[in-house]
Every structure is written in C-alpha cells, then in structure tokens.
Specification:
By secondary structure, the chain is α/β, with parallel strands linked by helices. The protein is built from five helices and seven strands; from the N terminus they run βαβαβαββββαα.
Amino acid sequence: MKIVLATTNPGKLKEFTELSKSEPWLSIEMAPENFSPAETGKTFFENARIKATVAAEMTGVLSVADDSGLVVEALNGRPGVQSARYCEGTDADRRKKLLKEMETVKSDQRQAAFFCAMVVSNPDGTVAFNTIRCWEGIIGYEEKGDNGFGFDPVFFLPKKNMTAAEIAAEEKNRISHRGQAWAQVVAFLKKMASTEANR
C-alpha cells in the first residue's frame, strides 16, 4: 500500500520509514516539493487535518499527517501548537527559552506531556481516520542526552530516570506519543488494505 507522508522534511520521512520497517507492505513517500499548507489550526488535530487533506488532494493518494508539540502545565499549556515556533532560532534556542521560563517552577509543578495527533486523509480530502496520543513526563533542569531532537533533552521521564534524548531510539519509537499514534494508524491501514484485498 502506498501512502504519502504530508511533509517535505527528509528527516521526518526517515523517522516514519524506521517506524515502519516491520511493515514491508507499506510504502511511504514524501509530499511534493511545493507542499506548504498554512498551519492555522488552534489544535494539534486541526493542523494535522489541514496537512493531510492538502497532501491527499495534491497527490490523489491516501495521505498521513502528524502534528505534535509539548504542553507544559506551569506555562498554561504553552508552547503547545506553537512548539516548533516557540521562538526564533534553533531547537537549542527553544530549549534554552523553556528552561529559562521554568527557572522558578518548583520540582512538583513541572509536569508536561508531548501530544501527537495523526490524521489519515482519503484522496478526496475527507478524513478516513484520526487519533491523538500523549507521552507524560516533567521538564528537567538541564539538557541531557543527544539521541533526540526538539525538546527531548529537557523532557524527563521519571519512570525511566532519564530524558527522552537518553533512551534508545527503538524504545522511544515504541513508547513515545508519535510511536503510539503511528501504531494506531498502521493498524487502521492494515485493516483497510485487508478489506481492499478481499473485495
């Protein structure tokens, strides 16, 4: 089954291909180079839906999009849907800003969660499936680990006693917000492929 991943980011394509290495029936392609929808949604689901439907309508192929971000309780849910646009600059700049904002927040009030919404769009732009999953943790006091990206080095997992950037990629793919959501999408696509094969 061929699907389009609603992104032009080769890194994201690589990540999803890695997540799908045990699904040889699934072929994933990137959206066309001119794919650039305005992410005007107020929620992760709305932004994922915008990206998935635009990619599907552009390509005429079943498309999958994700929108994810970090929700921090002490910051009233920020950075949220603005996670990638939290401030100008790099991921490192965004982590620095977050740690600065959290400087005076007590250890028992540093709860946070990564959220990931995924939407599967039919070629006509209608939503075929959607899900949203979360991964709970706390904001640490310093960066640790270099396996991850984004806010991973400051996202501490108490049960693991390490950050999201310190755990092995294979385990992260299994337990993260994106890994959980993708597992549900794959289950839906597998059922869809099976139904089509039996027609």
